[in-house]
UniProtKB/TrEMBL annotation:
InterPro entries: DUF6803 (IPR046547). The keyword Membrane applies. It comes from the Bacteria. This is Permease. Keywords: Membrane, Transmembrane, Transmembrane helix. It holds the Pfam family DUF6803. The keyword Ion transport does not apply. The chain crosses the membrane at residues 20-42, 63-83, 89-111, 132-154. It comes from Gloeothece verrucosa (strain PCC 7822). Coiled coil: none annotated.
Amino acid sequence: MMEMTHYMQLLADNQPWNLLIFMAIPVILAETIAVSELYILFTRDLKGRVRAINKIAGITVGFYFLIVFFYLLFKAVIPITLAGEWRTIIDVIAVGFYLLGVVPLFGISLLELGLIPNLKKEESKLQLHATFVAIFLIVAHIAMIFGMLSPALLGGHSSMPM
């Protein structure tokens, strides 16, 4: 029997709602930012429709994921930690890196709202924006990779079969 991480269990439970809320919405918004970011970086079109979509997606995803972060922190991470129910370091890495996505995503929102000071040049904003996108892609993929691993690889266990 295969075992699953809390990350995968969250996505598998309450179908299709958890998958939509915790994966589809943030990923669709983040991918919209990533693809539009490439267009903006290549064309330098800082005033067009693609830039407007990029900005709206950037503001939305940061605040959306901030809500997800606090929800999961109080409804999952703290209770799992207090109960000692982590399913090996694989589980901790999967959940931890998923939640770490709040840093670059909320950073994008703050940048879009002009709340990150000392960025007067548009070029500096573009560089930081692209850096936040890259950081999010890295942490999200680490979360997904570890989330799909079985905690049983390191002796962990779960009451939920995969």
